[in-house]
Amino acid sequence: MDYRVVPANEYVDAEWTSYYYNDGDHVEFEDVEDLIEYVTDYVQFEGEEYCQDLRELIELEDVSFDELWRFVKNNLNECGFFDECSVREESFIVPNTMFITKQDAKNHLLANKHHYSKKAHTYAMTAWRSPKVSKLMTILETMDWSEINKDIM
Known about the structure:
elongated
């Protein structure tokens, strides 16, 4: 099982608000330092009347994220690339994964952690009272594996 962030209804199931810049490259701002760093790189501090106000705002020791975000949205957002969205985290069963043992699943997560979030974990879906799984288990349990190994070698 893994987790992903998805858009949410701000009045029903939102867990937080995601603030971002998206012009094809998505940059998310988690705190005021992220926003200051991006705006400092993004803005040419010359020629525009809002530049001095922005410079003064950034230089304040106690500038809040909300205060800086409002300024950015009102003054630097001609193209609408700065935006926000209510989001929530949801769990999901990763498709195309099945392991017979928990240890196999753990080994897979360890070897492929770059494909999963840090919160990914093993997840069991039981096949209790499933006739097909019962039949498969009977076959696996009664199979003479030594005969199969002879054919392979």
